[in-house]
Amino acid sequence: MWNRALLSPVLRDGAHKVLGVVAARANSSTQSSTKLENVLEPMVRKDEKAQKINRAMRAYLERAQTQEKFLSEKKEEFELGKRHLANIMGWDPEEITQENIDEAIQYLLPSGLFEPKARPMMKPPEMIFAKQKLAEFDYTGRPHNSLFYTARGNFYGRLHEAFSHVLRLNEHQLAMRKKGVRTPEAAEQFDLRPYDWINQGELAELCLERIKDEHHDYFIRSMTRLAEHPYSNMAREILLKYLKPKQVETHEQEILPLMHDEAGNPYMEARGERKSLRAIVKVTGNGTGETLINKSMSVDEYFPELKDRLQVMFPLQFVGLLNKVDVEATIFKRHDEYELGEMAKSTEEEQKELIKPLELRKGQAAEAGAIRLALSRALCSFVTEEDVKLMRLSGLLTKDKRKRERKKPGKRGARRRYPWRKR
Amino acid sequence: MVAMRGLRALDPIFRRTVPFGIARGVSTDVELAANDALLPKAYALLREPDAFKVKDLVSISEMMENRMHLGHKKTLLNPFMKPFIYGSRFDQLIIDLEQSREHMVKALNFVAHIAYNDGIILLISRHNETAHEVEKCAMECKEFAHVRPWYQGMLTNCGTSFGTEIRLPDLGLFITTRGSQTAANEFAKLMIPSVGVVDTDTDPRLITYPVPGNDDSTETIRYYIRLFKEAILRGKERRKRDLEDSGSKSREVLS
């Protein structure tokens, strides 16, 4: 193809290899010829108007154009659909808002799907189709970011920035040592304790790039290194970009002030629930320890089992108010009555159910649990804040969220299988 | 700048190692260069043996001071590096700095020419201690750096790795070649020329312009960074000056 012997001595010098680029171009049409043409002659293009745009940029522009066209088409469809919807619903098509559209869609196409994203929707196209990244290079195809060729330019750019801060802090540390400061004050170091690092998804969102596990790990390691520098408070701003306040779960219980009845005795009412049962408890101060359940009997009579009685009385014992307050509890099976606060809606039979012979009653543990929770909540108003904290820590104010598990097809109950023997 | 077919014809090393046909269908940006007002000037510069005066940049005493001559232990010698060895001292190989100087001048000249023609230069290194400085150098020269792990197919499969069509770099500048063999392979496959510092334990065959020299000491690498940066800046300054003389606008002004 190419005859090396024909090359001039000048060309053999390394510097002139650049020429080869152009030589190849000039001769690409006549590659079969054995003679090398004068490669030092500048190549003259016939079409002077040839575009000065790089292929990559051209591809981007084409893509952007198709995307724009696609979006405008979708937008038109959306506008038309909006008018149709307004006609169906009998609304003014000019004044229909997005809330109206959502409402209409929910009305016309009701969906029982759990995942909201899976339900039918009608939204402006720009909300549904992802935004396209802007061009990262200029019209010659030269990228703007110096780290573009790592394929994660923004991510590594952030790491580069962080490391330049480490260098700056090191310099500062050296200068301080020269001044005679050997051990810097603790306040010079950034306190990481009240913060958490951002997670992988958030980092990816910041960088607009695909961040793998290893990248996130490396990022956190690098940032921790910066944060653990003795003078890291100087780099506070960059650290805070990647930190978020620690999520502290607060169990603040709202404590209502005590109320007083006609006789001047303090009292408080509270509600509690367990499984499908609900209870309302009224605790009256200056009492003698009397209990009344469902306006019919005392705790000892109502709960034949010792464990249930213990459950109910435990909050009183815990705060030391045993035999000092009176307790009045009502148990509800119906939700609407519970909301109302009285058993107005139950039939007589249902009411009888609650006070039928003890041996026949079911769900006593749940009843006791519901009363216990309601009682604990009511007692909060009678005791100090410190006691409330103790009650919370011992679990008295925590709702037991367990519910009956549904029966499954093919199973006798929720999990129990039917007996089966191999034939 | 990328069409390297001619280069392959000119260079015996390149011709030997890169099979024909691999780079077919790779995007080339010759049209940009062709439309460039500076093209006649670029050709004129190529006629000059040392257009950017890079010879003055390199001196053997400075190379020695920066420990460029120190190689690895004898046992680690890559046979292809044999021609560049001066001798050994206490089992440690010493690189022939006379040859290194020659190669370095060639490499710097090539880098400056690429910079003059507005080529994209990608600095590559896997030397961790100086990684930050390499990136900084690239940012200061408005060129590009890759000092991170190189995933295979980064350039050969660029449509996937970048998610879009991109312009490939025009020159791979390997500040250290040892840990970047994958990258060197890709540059060779794509017919993109490369300049690289090769130590006595490194395979120099896929590097278009190998420069034999120590690539482990921090100060040696800093010396390389200084040299290459100067070469790039000289090329760019000359381009800027010539563009002003010819009255056409530079890329920066246009964009």
From TrEMBL, chain A:
Record keywords, A-Z: Ribonucleoprotein, Ribosomal protein
GO BP of this protein: translation
InterPro entries: Ribosomal_Su5_D2-typ_SF, Ribosomal_uS9, Ribsml_uS5_D2-typ_fold_subgr
Record's GO cellular component terms: mitochondrial small ribosomal subunit
Signal peptide (from-to): none
Annotated organism of origin: Galendromus occidentalis
Source organism, top-level taxon: Eukaryota
Source lineage: Eukaryota, Metazoa, Ecdysozoa, Arthropoda, Chelicerata
Name of a matching Pfam family: Ribosomal_S9
Protein name: 28S ribosomal protein S9, mitochondrial
Gene: LOC100899111
Region (Disordered): 399-423
Family assignment from sequence similarity: Belongs to the universal ribosomal protein uS9 family.
Molecular function terms, GO-annotated: RNA binding; structural constituent of ribosome
Compositional bias ranges of the Basic residues kind: 400-423
PANTHER family recorded: RIBOSOMAL PROTEIN S9, SMALL RIBOSOMAL SUBUNIT PROTEIN US9M
Automatic annotation (TrEMBL), chain B:
Keyword hit for Cell wall biogenesis/degradation: no
Keywords in alphabetical order: Ribonucleoprotein, Ribosomal protein
An individual GO BP term: translation
Domain of life of the source: Eukaryota
GO CC annotation terms, alphabetical: mitochondrial small ribosomal subunit
Database matches in InterPro entries: Ribosomal_uS2, Ribosomal_uS2_bac/mit/plastid, Ribosomal_uS2_flav_dom_sf
Molecular function, one GO term: structural constituent of ribosome
Family: Belongs to the universal ribosomal protein uS2 family.
Full protein name: 28S ribosomal protein S2, mitochondrial
Naturally occurring in which organism (per UniProt): Galendromus occidentalis (western predatory mite)
Gene field: LOC100897940
